[in-house]
Design goal:
Layout lengths: L8 E5 L32 E4 L12 E8 L4 E6 L3 H8 L7 E5 L4 E3 L2 E4 L12 E8 L4 E7 L3 H6 L2 H9 L4 E6 L4 E3 L4 E4 L12 E8 L9 E5 L4 E5 L4 E2 L1
Antiparallel strand pairs: 1-15, 2-3, 2-6, 3-4, 4-5, 7-8, 7-11, 8-9, 9-10, 12-13, 12-16, 13-14, 14-15
Length: 241
Amino acid sequence: IFGGGGGDGSASSAGGGVGAAPNNNAQASNNNGVGPPFNEIRQGTPVVTQNLVNSPELNGRHGQIVSFDSSNGRYLVRLQPSTRNQASSSSGGSASATTVAMKPEKLLQMVRVKVHSLQSQPQLNGLDGQIRSYSSERDRYVVRVAYVDQEVFRSLPPEMQLEVSLHPPETRDISVSCNNIRIAVGTHVRLEGLEQRVQWNGKYGRIVKWIDGGEGGDGGRYEVRLSRQYAVLVKPQNVRL
C-alpha cells in the first residue's frame, strides 16, 4: 500500500501510481467529504494553551475548540474562566468564558491516551489517562491516570471492587515519553522530526491506524492521513498533539 521502505515516514498517494491506504475506520473518516477535514482538530476537543509569548497570562488556560478559520490558519477557542476570574466570581463578580483565535501550535489537545511499556512503574501500564501538558525541552507529556493499587483492590469485597473500578479514589500525574503512550485513532496530530520525508514536517493529519512493529520490530508506527489522497507511516516520536 505504501511506497518507500519505512524509515521515519512512508507515503501513499492516490494519484502517484501507489494505491491510497484504505480508510476503514469511521471515526477517522471524513465521510467522503462530509465532516471535518483530516488536518483539522474536531470541534469540541478539549485543549490547553501553551507557548504564548505576547499573551503569557493566557498560558495554561483550558478550553474547547469552537471552529477553524482556514483563511488565517487559526482556531477559535472558548477558554474557561481563569482561577483568578473564578475567585472574583465567588466574591460577587462575574466570570465568563473568553473566546480567542489561536494558532494550532499554541494549543495542546487534552485527549485520552493509553499508557504502556513503562519500566519504572509497570503497574501503570495499560491504564487510560488524559494529556495534561507537554514539555518541549524534555520532550515529555504529563498524563493524568486513575490508579488503584492492585493488592488493595484484590482484598476488597466484590461490591466494593465494582465501585472502585467505576470511581477510582486516586488520580496521579505521570511524566512519560511519546513512546509510552498510545494515541487513539481519530486524533489530530502534527508531524515533526521526519528525516527522510522532510516535506511532511509541520503538516497536520489524523491518526487512522496503529501498526504493530511485530517480533523484532522497532515498536510500530501510526498511519496518519493528511488528506483523502495522502497518508504517511510515522514513529511515535514523529507526532505531536
